[in-house]
Design a protein that fits this description.
With 342 residues, this protein is mostly helical. The protein has helices spanning 3-44, 53-68, 71-82, 88-109, 114-129, 136-147, 150-154, 159-168, 176-190, 194-197, 236-245, 278-288, 298-307, 314-333, and strands spanning 224-228, 249-251, 260-263, 294-297. The chain has a four-stranded parallel beta sheet with strand order 2-1-3-4, sandwiched between helices. Helix 12 links the parallel strand 3 (260-263) and strand 4. It is globular, with a radius of gyration of 22 Å.
């Protein structure tokens, strides 16, 4: 290959990479925009602004502005800060107008896809749980979404919530115990609301099945391990090398042979939904079919690798050391530290 041919090849490769990055940025923006519409509608599902919802709405709007500098979200944020609403009805009308305008903008760009419907439902659930309470009107609104969407009925991670909602409303009366159970089911999908955590919901990771947090319950020898999400402990290829050194078998995808799916503490911008990706979704499907695949927290895997001496690569060692030093400094300063839930 001549120098000119090599140069042209590099140019084409760079153009392809830039086009791919642009596509991912557009998909990521749409994913979060659809979630934002769902969140606003979830916050309105009780037909009033509950205690705690205003703070959650402000936090979510601020996060959305930081993501995309969205003018509508910025207006909502400014109006909340300036107390521009004459009363609760005026505020609800403003929020509803923003949601409708954003949905129209999204639909003008292209019709809703199955993934859009999933992301809006995740936002809807987050808007409902943001104040830490679940009301009957909100549960009825969730049930209506299930009954009017074939897409939501087919998504394995949503199946336990659907069953719980149907059971709770079977007698048309929602008890306090049922409401708390549903709050916990919703929290498994989108994590706890702002009222419980003090942080915006978007970016949290779904916990669709109780993960292993005790490193003593993890046996990597001969185990097939799948990583999903951005890992805090270091580059993925280094983590996979450490898993292999420990006797494990790193796998790129979830199958019936998978033993562990290690879930990161933070959601990935590359996941097709705001709170879980295809690996988590596939693992949940297999669990429902009787597969013995288990979810593992990233922290638990980190402890196994560190205590077993399998993290000899300098990048991983540096990552462990930096986090240990950070934790120690936070303790010395007596500063409360809140980690990302999920």
């Amino acid at each position: 290959m001549t120098l000119s041919e090599q140069a042209m090849s590099r140019i084409r490769q760079r153009e392809e990479e830039e086009a791919h990055d642009a596509f991912n940025r557009g998909a990521n923006r749409r994913k979060r925009s659809v979630y934002w519409v769902g969140f606003l509608e979830g916050a309105l599902a009780s037909t009033r602004i509950e205690d705690g919802e205003l703070d959650a709405l402000r936090a979510e709007a601020a996060r959305f502005v930081s993501f995309f500098d969205d003018p509508d979200a910025a207006d909502v944020l400014a109006d909340i800060d300036a107390h521009c609403f004459s009363d609760e009805a005026d505020m609800m009308d403003r929020v509803r107008t923003v949601a409708e305008a954003k949905r129209e903008e999204l639909l003008t760009a292209r019709p809703y896809s199955d993934v859009d419907e999933m992301n809006e439902f995740l936002g809807f659930c987050a808007g409902i749980v943001c104040d830490g309470r679940i009301l009957q009107r909100e549960v009825e609104a969730i049930l209506r979404r299930f009954r009017t969407s074939f897409v939501l009925l087919e998504v394995a991670p949503f199946e336990p919530l659907r069953r719980a909602v149907e059971a709770a409303l079977a007698d048309k009366v929602l008890t306090e115990e049922e409401a708390e159970d549903l709050r916990e089911w919703i929290a498994r999908i989108v994590s706890d609301g702002y009222a419980d955590t003090g942080v915006p919901n978007i970016g949290n990771v779904a916990m669709l099945h109780e993960p292993i947090t005790d490193p003593g319950r993890i046996d990597l020898d001969g185990a097939r391990v799948v990583l999903t999400g951005p890992m805090r402990m270091g580059p993925r290829r280094m983590i996979e090398a450490a898993i292999a050194d420990a006797g494990g078998i790193p796998d790129p995808r979830v199958t019936w042979k998978t033993d562990y799916v290690v879930v990161s503490s933070n959601a990935s911008r590359h996941w097709r939904t705001t709170h879980f990706g295809t690996k988590i979704e596939r693992a949940r499907e297999l669990i429902q079919q009787g597969c013995n695949v288990r979810f593992v927290s990233e922290v638990a895997l980190e402890k196994v690798l560190r205590h077993g001496g399998w993290c000899s690569h300098p990048n991983l060692v540096l990552g462990f050391a930096m986090k240990s030093a950070f934790s120690a400094s936070m303790i010395r300063l007596s500063v409360p530290f809140m980690s990302t839930p999920g």
